[in-house]
Specification:
Elements lengths: L1 H26 L4 E7 L5 E8 L2 E6 L9 E4 L9 E3 L2 E6 L2 E5 L1 H12 L9 H27 L1
């Protein structure tokens, strides 16, 4: 009887910890309620936060506080938004995200504010370096003229 009682107390304690974790995540500053779906599986409830050029998604149910998915902003292509019940959903590769209209607007603004990737080719690198050398050569000449006159 005491072993069954210990197991029951352990299960109740674990459920209480998971519930408190879910409430803390849902109410924490900087987190946005967000559902995630991989492929054809069902929607999973969680929260998303923006960190270091990535969107981190953490499930509400679970014990770990680490993100289960990290979606990089660079090069991410997003489908047009579509209604999904009361939420709005977008597809990002093999993952679908569903969130409120305000949260989705913030997500799309975060995507658009990403710095442009600079692609250096040998031609563009040569052009930039030669322009820099010409400019620095001209400033050295001007400096010599100013010093001698």
């Amino acid at each position: 009887m005491s072993a069954a009682l210990a197991v029951l107390i352990g299960v109740l304690l674990l459920a209480a910890l998971m519930g408190v974790r879910g409430i803390v995540l849902a109410r924490s500053r900087g987190f946005v309620p967000c559902r995630l779906r991989e492929g054809v599986q069902g929607w999973k409830n969680g929260v998303a936060r923006y960190a270091d050029g990535e969107l981190h998604w953490i499930p509400l149910l679970g014990l770990r506080m680490r993100p289960r998915h990290a979606i990089a902003r660079r090069g991410l292509r997003v489908s047009p938004r579509r209604p999904e019940g009361e939420l709005w959903a977008v597809d990002c590769g093999g993952i679908s995200l569903a969130m409120s209209e305000d949260a989705l607007t913030g997500f799309l603004a975060w995507l658009e504010s990403a710095p442009r990737a600079r692609i250096w080719t040998s031609r563009s690198r040569t052009a930039v370096l030669s322009a820099w050398r010409r400019a620095s050569r001209g400033s050295r000449r001007r400096a010599r003229r100013c010093g001698t006159g």
